[in-house]
Write a structure and sequence with these properties.
By secondary structure, the chain is mainly α. Among the domains are: 35 residues, no CATH class; 122 residues, TerB-like (Orthogonal Bundle), CATH 1.10.3680. Helices cover 71% and strands 0% of the residues. The protein has 14 helices and no strands. It is globular, with a radius of gyration of 18 Å. About 8% of the residues have low confidence. Keywords: Chaperone. This is DnaJ like chaperone protein. InterPro entries: DjlA_DnaK_co-chaperone, DjlA_N, DnaJ_domain, J_dom_sf, TerB-like.
Length: 248
């Protein structure tokens, strides 16, 4: 995993800075993130809600899953797939399941989870993707799910237009849960996009999701891990488009 993170960091650094220094810096940061060194170094800059962030996310995922009145097998699968992606150990996995189940209860007090979510605004786009995964798990976006997504987006400091763009991306085949997707949709573009637009979208998304920035902003290790996966998906989509178009 450390070697893969270093490789991804090197490629992204080279593409962004177009110099071997960018590759070397990216490789070093990738290794530091995967090894857990960088998150520990920057842990002191967390808001105090770092340990509560992922339980809050699973609680709010549970709320979304129950929004249409019942929790489907597909929604449980999304939750379990996220735990797999995070590589949660048994104790952490048990806590995540407990948080998800708490969110399913109609009498649960969500005030603490909402407060924690508001403190995660710097990582808003990453977590909104997780919430959209859950809302679309059964193939249909119900009215209450859409209302909750709007509320979550607002708490994460994101505009309604950002949520609409993400939903449109998913409708065109964008990534769900780290799977393969249409590369243009992955970058939030249409196949008619110009090369300039493609490069601009790639750089913006990498800057937004790059794990070294997440770690430096005090994100918990689980969020950094998700950001690393998201960056890999963005990079893979960009390389597919470049290859298909013969871009340099």
């Amino acid at each position: 995993m450390n070697a893969l993170a270093a490789l991804v960091g090197a490629v992204v650094g080279l593409l962004l800075l177009r110099h071997w220094i960018g590759a070397a810096t990216g490789a070093s940061l990738g290794w530091l993130i995967a090894s857990g060194v960088l998150p520990r170094l920057f842990g002191g800059f967390q808001t105090g809600h770092g340990d509560a962030l992922m339980p809050a996310v699973f609680t709010l995922l549970g709320r979304l899953a129950k929004a249409d009145g019942q929790v489907s097998r597909a929604e449980i699968d999304v939750c379990e797939a996220l735990m797999d992606r995070l590589q949660l150990q048994p104790r952490a996995r048990h806590a995540a399941v407990g948080a998800f189940n708490a969110g399913r209860r109609d009498d649960h007090d969500f005030s603490e989870a909402f407060a924690t979510l508001r403190d995660a605004r710097r990582h808003g786009s990453l977590f909104l993707n997780l919430f959209v995964d859950m809302a679309l798990a059964d193939g249909e976006l119900h009215a209450e799910e859409r209302r909750l997504l709007g509320k979550y987006a607002w708490m994460l400091g994101l505009r309604e237009s950002a949520l609409e763009t993400l939903l449109l991306q998913r409708a065109r085949g964008g990534t769900r849960g780290g799977g393969h997707a249409d590369p243009y949709a992955e970058l939030g573009l249409s196949p008619a996009a110009s090369e300039q637009d493609i490069r601009r979208a790639f750089r913006r998304l990498v800057s937004e999701h790059h794990p070294d920035k997440m770690a430096a902003r005090g994100a918990p290790p689980e969020a950094v891990h998700l950001a690393q996966q998201r960056t890999q998906a963005i990079l893979a989509a960009y390389e597919r488009i470049k290859s298909a178009r013969g871009m340099k």
